[in-house]
Specification:
Length: about 575
């Protein structure tokens, strides 16, 4: 290694700094919540520069080694000296250690920067400290070591390099620091001698991610700290460039991914921001995530539709515990055309609202669909019949429940002629995942699978046992009161893999017998069938029990004896 030419040694250093092992990749997460880099990677150039004189010279002369900017609660110094007393973090007793930040900004030269501001405290207790109604900092969140003042200080420093930002990721336990970050990123202050008067703006910015990691707060139906509830206007306008002075404004043309988790803004202004990133030589936003928004701060239907209309080239859409505020029970306006959308992940707290939200989308090229019932966390799962039927048939209708005429009083019967004549909503879907999605009967699942003719991969996680029967031909009723003898063909004949997770042991025999029956009916064999059984009462089938070779992989995970299955 010591005989390597300088250029080759520099390249080796880059690989050592930015290349990731498989374990490191797993810790970064997936999708739009993926971290920009592994936090430990920032130590690598420091280690390399401490080996010998030549390595130090090469490391310090390679700006690309220093492009990962990481600021966390470890950079906050408690000047009071009493780290065990939460009240010692209040007021002016906290300072930001700038040595490491300044060192990386200097050594990175003019290279683009990946910035990760991690305001999470591993010792923070969400149940005891919730954002309150303090008029300045959202007390008692002011006791958090990473407060709004620290966030503002960091962004004021990083802002001088805004033209080098490639990705900006901000995590926080509490709302006050994120509100401060939004203010810094949204209020242009042209001509005041700071970074906001840059003529180039965030011209290299590709990814913007803001997340509130307060698992207790996001479960509330309404937003907490009223003083900080008012949405920030002109969101992210401070990232714009002003090539011809204050009157000319150009938003980041390279921006491709936006993720707002637990972060709300003025949605009408956000619509204009989204729309302005598309046009000319720019493809606009390709990855969008809106997650964990309280009902009173979600966009209305009009704003939601305009946000989607501003993302004509959208490829990935994640909606978790969010969506438009549905005032009525009927769709409003035509569906928004998203011809390039390939992945849709929907976590819902109301199945009926989820179906209405789906009705605003037209995405015939969709490849992967993930549906997840988020209400199961509160032990109040939805009856997702309406959502499943819509995804399978395009009809916003569901069968009325027997003995409960008021359940779906606004929904009419589903005639068979509508099923037969409808073109599948998602003809290109190849991967479907249902997690905690419960329906009152078998038909909604059957209609969903019948509407996915090209399905290749199926994930069934913690769904009712009777739902597995949808893998067999089922009778479809042209009237929910008088059944016809009509049967569907064998569903999902192109399946290549099934991945199922459950807590009941008899699911093994249920799934195995269903797959065996499919084979008798002439369906092709599914090459990969993986079943994972969880719970203390689950066990591997004994030697006297019937074994099903159709299940290619069985994983039994035993937990405590007190565990019980989710489904009876």
């Amino acid at each position: 290694v010591h005989s390597f030419p300088t250029e080759l040694l520099s390249y080796v250093f880059e690989l050592a700094t930015h290349a990731l092992s498989q374990d490191e990749r797993n810790t970064l997460g997936t999708g739009q919540q993926r971290l920009p880099f592994h936090p430990q990677s920032i130590r690598v150039p420091l280690w390399l520069s401490a080996v010998n004189r030549r390595w130090r010279h090469v490391a310090l002369s390679t700006p690309s080694l220093w492009t990962s900017i990481f600021v966390s609660v470890d950079n906050v110094i408690n000047c009071s000296g009493d780290e065990r007393n939460p009240s010692s973090f209040c007021g002016s007793n906290r300072l930001l250690d700038l040595e490491s930040l300044a060192y990386f900004l200097l050594r990175s030269g003019n290279c683009t920067l990946d910035i990760f501001i991690d305001g999470r405290d591993p010792e923070w207790d969400f149940s005891d400290y919730l954002d309150g109604d303090d008029t300045t900092d959202g007390c008692p969140s002011a006791k958090h070591p990473f407060d709004a003042r620290i966030m503002t200080h960091i962004l004021d420093i990083l802002g001088h390099h805004v033209y080098r930002w490639r990705s900006m990721t901000i995590f926080s336990d509490t709302w006050a620091p994120l509100h401060a970050a939004l203010c810094c990123l949204s209020v242009p202050r042209v001509g005041q001698g700071n970074f906001f008067n840059s003529r180039r703006g965030a011209s290299c910015l590709e990814t913007l991610q803001l997340m509130q990691c307060d698992e207790y707060s996001i479960r509330n139906e309404y937003f907490g700290p009223g003083v900080l509830k008012e949405p920030i206007t002109t969101p992210f306008a401070a990232l714009a460039s002003y090539p011809e002075g204050p009157s000319s404004l150009m938003l980041p043309a390279r921006l491709r991914s936006i993720s707002l988790c637990g972060v709300h803004v003025n949605w009408s202004d956000f619509t204009r921001f989204i729309s302005s990133t598309w046009g000319g030589l720019s493809n606009g936003i390709e990855n969008l995530e809106l997650s964990y928004h309280h009902r009173d701060v979600r966009p209305d239907v009009t704003a939601f539709r305009r946000i989607l209309e501003g993302c004509a080239n959208l490829r990935s859409l994640i909606l978790k515990h969010t969506g438009p505020q549905w005032v009525g029970r009927a769709p409003q306006g035509p569906s928004v055309q998203l011809p390039r959308l390939e992945t849709l992940h929907l976590v819902f707290d109301s199945a009926e609202e989820a179906a209405l939200t789906m009705s605003t989308l037209c995405c015939p090229g969709l490849k992967a669909l993930i549906l997840e019932d988020g209400a199961q966390a509160q032990n109040s799962p939805n009856d997702a019949s309406l959502l499943l039927i819509y995804c399978g048939t395009g009809a916003l209708r569901t069968p009325p429940r027997l003995g409960n005429d008021s359940t779906y009083d606004s929904v009419t019967c589903l005639p068979h002629s509508e099923i037969k004549s409808n073109v599948p909503l998602f003809p290109s879907v190849q991967a479907l995942t249902l997690e905690y999605v419960s329906a009152s009967g078998l038909i909604p699942y059957a209609l969903l699978l019948a509407g996915l003719p090209n399905l290749r991969r199926l994930g069934l996680r913690y769904i009712p046992k009777h739902a597995f029967g949808s893998l067999l031909p089922q009778p479809l009723f042209c009237d929910w009161e008088t059944a016809s003898d009509l049967r569907t063909p064998i569903p999902c004949t192109h399946l290549e893999s099934i991945e199922a997770t459950h807590t009941e042991r008899d699911v093994y025999s249920i799934l195995g017998s269903i797959l065996r029956e499919r084979a008798k009916l002439g369906a092709p064999r599914i090459p990969e069938v993986m079943l994972r059984l969880e719970g203390g009462h689950c066990s591997v089938p004994g030697p006297t029990e019937l074994a099903y070779e159709e299940i290619t992989c069985l994983d039994v995970v035993k937990t405590s004896e007190g565990d019980v299955g989710y489904f009876e």
